[in-house]
């Protein structure tokens, strides 16, 4: 089956080139396309790589490679992973050659897996699984040795197709509602069916990380979308409403935030803020052709095509603010390319070392016995023994020095921040725009608070009278979020000099910091690292409170006048 051969080739290339699995799977080179579903390929390759240290011991000590000529070390790893650790087992008929090559040695492989587990001090396979995922765990507060995952699976109820009540009475009817997120996290290892309705984002629930809803009809038809809670902040903070004009999603692919905007806008049509409300639409820009196709696919499957107009291969910075299509743009969502330092799994995945099993099994018992025992390979011998092969070991990439790493990071952040500021200034130039939300999945102040201050001090912001959306003006869920911007980051940016002299615009450090929202990457809120802030301009406008306690921007005539990604983010189905 191509899935296993392709996953094995991904692991081989990861080791050889020291590159990320995600980039290999989703950055398809000309003339080379995967036969397997990219999502399945990425999942299998990543999990096999994470488990490779354990599985290398299991396969190597079992002696399977000494007798099964059709198995390469990486092919043996991915097949063994699916045999013992995936929910569905090996996705091949039992009679298939690859399936048979591994499954006929199941007893010995299972025994070696048990030994590997015990060597790591784990009483159960589930404990070993949590230990393998040890980069994202926290104590359960009861037993010092027990750990539970930090991150649940966040499920957004797509109100374009269903409602929260319908899903709680349907898909989650047999699940138990729990009052705290910690209870969801603690249930992750035992895979109990529990959920918690989020208190900050409407129509969002948290379920255990081990729960799989991707095979359900609700997920496959777009009623349920896997989206991190932090990724839901931008659309909810922007809070687009019917009657206020159109919305631009400037960096739209893969489409989670776009479809979230569409759901909020569609719901608002029933209770518009202004009298003679016009429907309003979302203009989704994506400059990359392949990602544009992904965006169009997700918009269609989510039922958002009526609300969203996809501008395929459209670079937002090349969209003139005075263009006819922009004449009614009242709000913009900017989620530009960033360092991705807040993404859960990105740094872990990029540092994964793929361990390979030895083709010559270790036959020492470590007990000093004089009696010779048959080697595992001899016990398994069904074919003529192949000539011995050189043992393969993992190769470590020499780390950069601390100075070099810091220098490279500083330069990269400076380049990203310059691009992000250019994007913000372009958005602020849309003549009828009244609201902008800017977000990144970065933990660095250089891409966050520093960019906010620079934008406020820009010429276009001064001319158009843009300011931050103050905390007390934000919708209730965002106003109540406890993590705000870094005051030190804002203060540092305020002290920056440009061309030898400080900018002339005064910035209230406390106000700006309080206007910003942050999410901790490995905090107890179960989020990835994230930053979001809103900008508003109320020249000639009146601020009116909406039903959520946020601000509505209505012109005097009762009508508003119009006017994600991470570096290698790719759509993997309805997920964040």
From TrEMBL:
Biased composition (Low complexity): 375-384
Biased composition (Polar residues): 351-363
Residue stretches of biased makeup (Acidic residues): 566-576
Annotated PROSITE patterns: SAM_MT_RSMB_NOP (PS51686)
A GO biological process held by the record: rRNA base methylation
Domain SAM-dependent MTase RsmB/NOP-type: from-to ranges: 143-538
Gene Ontology CC terms: nucleolus
Active site annotation, chain numbering: 441 (nucleophile)
InterPro entries: MeTrfase_RsmB-F_NOP2_cat, MeTrfase_RsmB-F_NOP2_dom, NSUN5_7_fdxn-like, NSUN5_RCM1_N, RCMT, SAM-dependent_MTases_sf
Entry keyword RNA-binding: yes
Keyword flag S-adenosyl-L-methionine: yes
Sections of the chain in a coiled coil: none
This protein's UniProt keywords: Methyltransferase, RNA-binding, S-adenosyl-L-methionine, Transferase
SUPFAM superfamilies in alphabetical order: S-adenosyl-L-methionine-dependent methyltransferases (SSF53335)
Pfam family of the protein (one): NSUN5_fdxn-like
UniProt-listed PANTHER family: 28S RRNA (CYTOSINE-C(5))-METHYLTRANSFERASE, NOP2 YEAST -RELATED NOL1/NOP2/FMU SUN DOMAIN-CONTAINING
Sequence similarity: Belongs to the class I-like SAM-binding methyltransferase superfamily. RsmB/NOP family.
Protein name stated in the entry: SAM-dependent MTase RsmB/NOP-type domain-containing protein
UniProt source species: Friedmanniomyces endolithicus
Lineage start: Eukaryota, Fungi, Dikarya, Ascomycota, Pezizomycotina
